[in-house]
Specification:
heterodimer; A: alpha+beta; 3 helices; 5 strands; B: alpha/beta; Rossmann fold; 2 domains; five-stranded parallel sheet; four-stranded antiparallel sheet; 11 helices
Chain lengths: 113, 240
């Protein structure tokens, strides 16, 4: 049994990374899956952390909408206002994760100030 | 979110404390609620506050809409549950792998070196030490369960006492009603309150007529899951 447990878990400690980046003086946005319909590839509560230079860690969709979320996150970092995004997940992607019916997700993007 | 809230959230996670981040999706205002916080009602509007106990139990994040039409996202952080098994016995050989499959981080402690061998427990942490020595460096907490399975008071009693003191969500002990009655006498003589000893699950496991060690392990695991998912609710029932 370890005395100092590692931080959890499903999110590969994206929140720990976000804190480290902020401490290092980087501009940081945090994206969170807040709602899913159908066969969304990542569960509600999944995080993606993005910095002002387009570095990112974590996942909100298993890859298919990360590019768009990162673009929006850069704008959120610039303007400071949070945004609520909605995406349809293409059937092709849904197939790749083992489901055939497609899905939709809503992603909240906020700046860590 | 502001960096201080993020730091407080990560601090709660490091301390194995349950916490919920409440985000108003319209305004962007974020508040952190730790399960061990007192005065919850002063921090959060009542309509939201009443939803939080269920969220702490289910550990499910999700979106909620209030009567006013505001959307809030609840990010629920609950530490991974641990199971500490006292006794590297036959039941433990079945319980440890089953509990791991169910998502528990399992540790077995037994000072009897003939029992506590890696050969008998593949892929599980087995410590051939006295429980009190292990618990000194790795204290129990509210998200840890303790199952005492040795039948031996010298080994079982101290971790049971420690588990009750730490508020473990589950404390179970193997033994007949007669054995357990004597155990309660010893614990109370050592200063444990009757209210605390009443929360010990004994005889251990749900009453499913389990016979074999593997079946007893199933009954213990079912009882563990119930205790985890009904945290607080079950404790209140037992106390009443």
């Amino acid at each position: 049994m370890t005395v100092e447990p590692p931080l959890q878990l499903d999110n590969a400690d994206v929140l720990g990374i976000a804190e480290d980046w902020v401490r290092a003086g980087r501009s940081v946005a945090l994206a969170t899956v807040v709602e899913t319909w159908g066969s969304a590839p990542r569960p509600v509560g999944s995080h993606l952390v993005i910095d002002g230079d387009c570095h990112f860690e974590g996942s909100v969709s298993g890859g298919c909408v990360e590019g768009a979320v990162i673009e929006e996150a850069i704008e959120v970092i610039g303007k400071g206002e949070p945004r609520l995004l909605e995406f349809g997940v293409a059937d092709e992607t849904a197939w790749r994760v083992g489901l055939s019916c497609g899905g939709r997700i809503r992603v909240y993007v906020e700046k860590v100030v | 979110m502001d960096r201080f809230t993020l730091e407080r959230l990560n601090e709660a996670r490091r301390q194995r404390q349950a916490a919920i981040l409440v985000t108003n999706l319209a305004s962007g205002v974020v508040r952190l609620v730790r399960e061990d916080d007192a005065g919850l009602d002063r921090m959060i509007e009542p309509a939201l506050a009443e939803l939080l106990p269920d969220r702490f139990r289910s550990a499910r994040s999700g979106l909620v809409r209030t009567a006013d039409g505001d959307e809030f996202f609840l990010t629920v952080h609950v530490p991974p549950p641990r199971l500490v098994i006292i006794g590297a016995v036959h039941i433990s050989q079945a319980l440890a792998p089953m509990a791991r499959i169910a998502g528990f981080d399992v540790t077995i402690i037994d000072p009897r070196t003939a029992f506590a061998t890696p050969e008998r427990f593949a892929d599980v942490a087995v410590l051939a030490e006295w429980p009190e020595d292990v618990l000194k460096r790795a204290p129990l907490d509210a998200f840890t369960a303790v199952a005492a399975l040795t039948h031996d008071p010298k080994i079982d009693d101290e971790p049971i006492r420690a588990a009750l003191a730490a508020g473990c969500f589950y404390v179970g002990a193997l033994g007949s009603r007669k054995t357990h009655a004597k155990r309660i006498e010893r614990l109370q003589a050592a200063g444990v309150s009757p209210a605390a000893t009443a929360t010990i699950r004994a005889p251990i496991g749900l009453a499913i007529g389990a016979q074999s060690p593997a079946e007893i392990a199933v009954s213990v695991l079912a009882e563990l899951v119930e205790a985890l998912r009904k945290r607080g609710v079950v404790a209140t029932e037992l106390a009443s």
